[in-house]
Amino acid sequence: MRKGAETRERILEIAEASVLAKGFGATSIEEVIAEAGITKSGFFYHFKDKNELARALMLRYVEENDRIFDDVFHRGRQLSDDPLQSFLITLKLLAELMGDLPNGHPGCLIATFTYQERLFDRSVREIAASAVRSWNGRFRDALNEIASVYPAHKDMDLDDVAIMFSCVIDGGIIMSRGLGDPRVLERQILAFRSFVKMLFAPAAPDIMLPPAHTAVAAE
Amino acid sequence: MRKGAETRERILEIAEASVLAKGFGATSIEEVIAEAGITKSGFFYHFKDKNELARALMLRYVEENDRIFDDVFHRGRQLSDDPLQSFLITLKLLAELMGDLPNGHPGCLIATFTYQERLFDRSVREIAASAVRSWNGRFRDALNEIASVYPAHKDMDLDDVAIMFSCVIDGGIIMSRGLGDPRVLERQILAFRSFVKMLFAPAAPDIMLPPAHTAVAAE
DNA sequence: GTGAAAACCATACCGCCGGTACAGTAAATT
DNA sequence: AATTTACTGTACCGGCGGTATGGTTTTCAC
Lengths: 219, 219
What we know:
2 copies of one chain form a homodimer.
Chain A lengths: L1 H21 L6 H8 L3 H7 L3 H30 L3 H17 L9 H6 L7 H26 L10 H22 L3 H18 L14 H4 L1
Helix pairs in contact in A: 1-2, 4-5, 4-7, 5-9, 7-8, 8-9
The first copy, chain A, binds a DNA duplex (30 and 30 nucleotides) through helix 1 and helix 3.
């Protein structure tokens, strides 16, 4: 029972790496099982077909990302009571997290999957879409909280700003990979962070530095 | 001779749509030739293997995008002498272009390819990387021109802002697709446009409205 | 109009892969 | 000790990427 879960996890790990490097269609089950050290029968014991592998990969990815966001938002809120400062800290932590990855970000499963939508059934696409909506909702909530305290720039829709963060992350991953420079993603997140700062502190950004005990992570 | 070019073009058209819907690895040559109404021999007359198809797809995509950027930047410069206004017009035109696509943006080949890098040889990846660098350079040049006239916000690196635009486009395409809402991309470009406005006109954006004869496209 | 090059078609074949089917087995759990 | 879990082994099917080879039609240059 526990051994089965371990094998399953190993399969998912190997398959995810392959999917992010070659795409789902080009990910061969035979390669995966060779690397995992099991037989084809063993694979189909855990996943009845390739589509169920896709669903499992997606669920796993969404859950792990949820955990990361939970953590980083939680720590942001711990380090400051001010919604703006807390969000800026969260963004800084995220940027650090991305910069600390030795080989750069491994890739966003949601991005690959949306570029291969025809390969998956509705359920897989729904998992991805609702996860994206949930993350965008998180960002928007954080922005709304800030906007209830700080005056926001008028001609910016906060919904769009929230979605833009998702765009910057996914786009940043693509740019990092395509340009072969892992630090692009980190810089992009920090650039978005400056954008948020500017959005809520257009006139005199120096005024709203965080209190001393939260200043370390915020700047 | 001319007929050959037509067939080749038809193959590329069909293959591109398939690649953007299923990925390169899952794009079957047999499906492509069936839709194109040719035989397998006919296909391999034009492309000696699948990798050469990939290279041709990439070259075609880069050239078309170059044309689009040429056009939209040229028209932006035509409509205003002011570098900021001209860039804002360019962004507006781009947003309109994206919004007018009936089924949403078909997808960015560069994005798919970077998520399937292991399938292509170095030459294909180099074409993609240098194209991205060239487009980022265009944006950065436009921003530098603006910065030579308008004071820019200090803690924003213009290189990062330029790359961010690429991120917003690629991310916007993914979000549009994933959320099933084609208008997200247009809104994201316009949001980035507001960001640029804010970046160069933080204190009093109303002051620098364009002269009357360029006002239509700019706002 | 003719010859040559270009643009294909037809057929046959190889090996890999996704997937199915089914029979068997070692280990963990109850 | 019985049962479930977690696999292995073997055999097979059809589809696909790719190669090879030889033939046929269309187009263009002269």
